[in-house]
């Protein structure tokens, strides 16, 4: 069950005045009058709930009294006004829907304005839609279109007859302008026997079958597999004699084998120490002018530089430190 919402005295008085004002406007009108608010009927229900709760509070606190009777009369008056307004509005909506759905073709005075649902309650719009749907079912069940247009119109008997293509009228054989009647030949409808051009539908399977198997290899040179010539019957392969089993047992000549192994051993050239050149380059003597927090990497490893230190470093490292201003050459 939805939670009930009650109105304060100011809101209750406003909704009650709108209810009576809308009823006065609707009386004598055949179309539904615009409502003062879109949630009009919801507020009317909240008004009646508020009045009922006030009656219960008075009965609990004061008991049956003149004040409670006055509130009960007010409640009955609001209920009667809401019922009368709803009845007149439903009748007006049914009349509007029926006039729109059952109007005859070419009739005058039945062109009603469409409903502006931004000024009506959503519940009334749902009622109007259901009424229109029921009217359409009624029109279908009684064959309303046949009643209004006739059987000939329903069966297509009133349509102009279609003649075969190439039909020539008698006025074409009269040399005078205007033909037989002086008003020209009447218009006729000709049959159109030309069949429409069928739309070409491409079959996906046929397209795939016509497509190349591997389109990404288009233009590539085919790989030619080497062919192996089969030996003719009766010919012996070159390796046949080597692979054939020997009739004699092969004898090993160890002296010849040892001589062949000695000749195939590589000759090791002895290099004297005098011919070796030193790998390490020339060392330079430098004096450090500025201390460095981080050690530097040389060919001998990491060293820490402090101001005033005298070091022997390789030429590349020494020149780098001198060029950067960290050290200076200190030759003896």
Into which percentage range does the β-strand content fall? 5-15%
**Structure classification:** mainly alpha
Number of distinct helices: 10
Report the uncertain regions: 268-280
- State the helicity in percent bands: 40-55%
| Approximate shape | flat
Tally of strands: 7
Q: What distance separates the N and C termini?
A: 109 Å
What kind of oligomer do you see? single chain
Q: Report strand order across the widest sheet.
A: 6-3-7
Calculate the mean pLDDT score and round it: 75
Specify the CATH architecture of the domain at 9-101 and 114-149.
Up-down Bundle
Rg over alpha carbons: 58 Å
The gist of it:
The protein is mainly alpha-helical. 42% of the residues lie in helices and 7% in strands. It has helices at residues 9-26, 40-61, 66-101, 122-141, 144-149, 151-155, 204-210, 240-243, 254-264, 315-323, and strands at residues 162-163, 189-190, 283-288, 296-298, 301-303, 310-314, 327-329.
Could you explain how this protein is built, in words?
This protein is mainly alpha-helical and 332 residues long. Among the domains are: 9-101 and 114-149, Methane Monooxygenase Hydroxylase, Chain G, domain 1; 283-329. The chain has ten helices and seven strands. It has helices at residues 9-26, 40-61, 66-101, 122-141, 144-149, 151-155, 204-210, 240-243, 254-264, 315-323, and strands spanning 162-163, 189-190, 283-288, 296-298, 301-303, 310-314, 327-329. The protein has a three-stranded antiparallel beta sheet, with helices on one face. The chain has a two-stranded parallel ribbon with strand order 1-2. Strands 4-5 form a two-stranded antiparallel ribbon. Strand 4 (296-298) and strand 5 (301-303) form a beta hairpin.
